[in-house]
Amino acid sequence: MELAFIPSPSRGVLYLGPIPLRGYAFCIIIGVFVAVWLGNKRWIARGGRTGTVADIAVWAVPFGLVGGRLYHVITDYELYFSEGRDWVNAFKIWEGGLGIWGAIALGALGAWIGCRRRGIPMPAYADAVAPGIALAQAIGRWGNWFNQELYGKPTDLPWALEITSSADGRVPGTYHPTFLYESLWCIGVAVLVIWADRRFRLGHGRAFALYVAAYCAGRAWIEYMRVDDAHHILGLRLNVWTAMIVFLLAVTYLVVSSKKRPGREAVVEPGASGGEADGDDASAGEGKEDEAKEEESQADEANDEAGSAKKS
């Protein structure tokens, strides 16, 4: 008999009159707002303009949602296109089913379009929003709690997740709360990226690459614990292979980029002033002022010597 466990909500949707308020959707929306808020603070600190992160997010977020849904539908196509299934459900994103790999890939395409329109270097923008994306994932994972999905193997640990639903093949019981493990891991990833960025002044996309590598390291072992249906390759779940491959790509980028382009961008947004850009401009201005004073002093000394020579 379990003495303690994490209860699941009896339902994942509330109704405000005829309007459904879905927990999964709320988690996604809150995560987006947190990512934009933190990304904006970091962008301003790097010398960018207020509001630029939100403007580019207008492109990145819709692309990311479409990409995440496409990845899920493609990799779990039997849920929507096999016999007895309704393909219309593939469009019901509020019922859950977003693949982070597709969300990041297509979201990056949307961000690239937004950056290109603003004349902003994409790697600098990615570095600014990286920890915010990790926090958005941490919040978004609680949407799986509302839907009673993506849990792990059976367990009687005090923090076990109680599943009460028997829909779609679920078996009521207590399981590892893999949604919680990933949520906590993503918070740790955000903290790591913020610390490393301050400590090593990561630039040219390296903060984003660190986020990707750190997330993949956690996703691999958390994915291994899950018991929901998934495609397997050589005995491993598809997402485990994806995590390992993307991890290696991210680490490779970190190493190669640090050698080819050390340091970080001096200017992240043309025509903007603030943060690091202001500090550089102020330093440059002080240097020019000192040079002008030194030249003026030398001119005064030359004039004094010339006057003395005439008197003699």
How is this structure best described in words?
- This protein is mostly helical and 312 residues long.
- It has one domain (13-272).
- It contains 10 helices and 6 strands, in the order E-E-H-H-H-H-H-H-E-E-H-H-E-E-H-H.
- Strands 1-2 form a two-stranded antiparallel ribbon. Strands 3-4 form a two-stranded antiparallel ribbon.
- Helix 1 (23-45) packs antiparallel against helix 5 (122-140) and helix 2 runs antiparallel to helix 4.
Short description:
The chain has 312 residues and is mainly α.
Radius of gyration: 26 Å
The helix/strand class is mainly alpha
Shape: globular
Please tell me the total number of domains. 1
Largest sheet geometry: 2 strands, antiparallel
Distance N to C terminus: 110 Å
Binding site for a 1,2-diacyl-sn-glycero-3-phospho-(1'-sn-glycerol): 141
GO cellular component, one term: plasma membrane
Function: Catalyzes the transfer of the diacylglyceryl group from phosphatidylglycerol to the sulfhydryl group of the N-terminal cysteine of a prolipoprotein, the first step in the formation of mature lipoproteins.
Main location: membrane
